[in-house]
Amino acid sequence: MTLFFIVTLNGLTLAALYFLAATGFSLIFGLMRTVNMAHGALLLLGGYVGFSVVEATGSWGLGVIAGGLAAALAGALVQFGILGWMQGDELRQTLASIAISIIMADLMLWHWGGITYQVTLPELLSGGQRLPLLGVGYASIRLALMAFALVIGVALWFLIQKTRFGAVIRAGVDDQAMLRALGFPIKRIFISVFALGGMLAGMAGVVAASALSIAPGTDLQFLLSSLVVVIVGGMGSVGGAALGALLVGLAEQYGLAYAPTYGAVFTFAIMVLVLAVRPQGLLGRAEK
Predict the structure, then answer these.
(1) Alpha-carbon distance 203 to 257, whole Å?
(2) Whole-angstrom distance, CA of residue 79 vs CA of residue 87
(3) By the 8 A CB rule, do 97 and 198 touch?
(4) Among 42, 88, 43, 54, which Cα is nearest to 190's?
(5) What is the pTM of this model?
(6) Within 13 Å and on the Cβ side, how many CA atoms surround 174?
(7) Where is this protein localized, as stated in its record (predicted)?
């Protein structure tokens, strides 16, 4: 039972990371119908920038903010300078974002090298906490990660459900043509959503570099995971991203613990099952 609970906590930790990474991807995909294949590169950029800022200043919180802002700026530039000119042409956008991802990965490899980095944790988050029910210790950063993802999830829910900007995003998910016809500045909205998605990815990169580590290839790992989470949960839905991340994170950890040879099969089995039964995702809306 102790092993089961520890594996469950590890699954929740991984789900929190996947949620942070996939939420921005889900919003971009849901509103703009753009499969941003550079999303993983934005996450890696945020992680690298956050690491550099923490090393220079010694402030972990400042590193998280800097990583999020760097990825937000990069995302806004990608949308404004490249993908925005291809709106409505999904194939061109997908191919262009793949090219951007490769270029960004090579530039980051040139600047930061091919070694693995781990962000230095503040004293408050270093070490572990003893879990009273299990009688074992668990890393403080992992517990903080779950709390951080919960706070971000509540904040995003409030933004999407209770603010005018969120209402515009939800309207765009339902009927983008009507939103344009009503005179809303679609280009500025798209740039804002892209920046928001990049910020979430950048913050996830710093947190991932703190709880785990980052290195070349981390971008592809989280990009694939984000795609699976969005497919399972449904695009454009914060709740869907949370549910999809929870299912994928737990499936990966249970698979690694109890059936390591077939661990990856569980994740893709969930995806295939959802596609067969509910193609729009568990909490996604069917196209009209």
Answers:
(1) 28
(2) 10
(3) no
(4) 88
(5) 0.89
(6) 8
(7) Cell membrane
- Domain residues for the domain of 60 are 15-216
Residue 237 · residue 81 · CB < 8 Å: no
Query: What is the sign of the dihedral through the CA atoms of 57, 62, 63 and 67?
Result: negative
Q: Is residue 271 in some structural domain?
A: no
Q: Is residue 241 part of a domain?
A: no
CA torsion 121-69-180-90 (nearest 10°) is -70
What does the DSSP assignment read for 136-198?
EEEEHHHHHHHHHHHHHHHHHHHHHHHSHHHHHHHHHHH-HHHHHHTT--HHHHHHHHHHHHH
Residue 235 lies in a domain: no
Residue found by looking up tokens 């800022």 in the block: 53
Closest CA to 54 of 45, 63, 46: 63
Span 72-116, pLDDT tens digits: 999 999 998 888 888 777 788 889 999 999 999 999 999 999 899
Cβ-based neighbour number of residue 173 at 10 Å? 21
In eight-state DSSP terms, residue 120 is P
Could you give the number of structural domains in the chain? 1
């490249």: which residue's tokens? 82
Interatomic CA distance for residues 243 and 278, integer angstroms: 14
State how far the Cα of 10 lies from the Cα of 58, in Å rounded to an integer. 27
* Tokens found for residue 247: 């299912």
Going 217 to 218 to 219 to 220, the CA torsion angle's sign is positive
**164 in a domain, yes or no?**
yes
DSSP letter, residue 131: E
